[in-house]
Write a structure and sequence with these properties.
Layout: E1 2-5, E2 11-14, H1 18-35, H2 45-57, E3 59-61, E4 64-66, H3 82-98, H4 100-116
Antiparallel strand pairs: 1-2, 3-4
Helix pairs in contact: 3-4
């Protein structure tokens, strides 16, 4: 038995058994070991490829870092969506002709994108690329 005196001079008696405290401590440790499993790091092959590509290509140029894109090696065959894209373009052009105000806003946005270098006009002579890259980032 232990006696503890507090500042108010109230006497408190605490009785415990050393063996019970050890047992309780072991139970609490076991509970937390079960409740919080150890973190395991599982890296998928495409994540490893992306990480390795970034590590190999990382350079510091003109005051900023440049990193290569982590493209997948085995490219899926993508369907030709030219006719669908053309149809959407024609619908958008028709909508913009019906609404001149919307057409002006649309042109301003495209002009801004062109000034920032996000887009550029493609000449008619340019050949369609035969290779399209896909990035290994998954959308979960």
């Amino acid at each position: 038995m232990y006696t503890i005196l507090t500042t108010e001079e109230v006497q408190t008696n605490l009785t415990f058994f050393l063996n019970d405290m050890h047992e309780l401590n072991c139970l609490v440790h076991r509970y937390w070991d079960i409740d919080e499993p150890k973190e395991t790091l599982v890296v998928r092959p495409d994540e490893k490829l992306a990480r390795d590509t970034v590590a190999r290509s990382l350079t510091f140029t003109d005051g900023h870092y440049v990193v290569g894109m982590p493209w997948k090696q085995d490219q899926p065959s993508l369907p030709d969506n030219y006719s669908m894209a053309l149809s959407r373009l024609q619908c958008t052009e028709k909508k913009l002709k019906w609404s001149p105000e919307l057409g002006e806003v649309y042109n301003e946005v495209l002009q801004t994108y062109q000034e920032k270098g996000y887009i550029h006009k493609v000449p008619h002579e340019e050949v369609k690329p035969d290779h399209f890259g896909t990035c290994p980032i998954s959308q979960s």
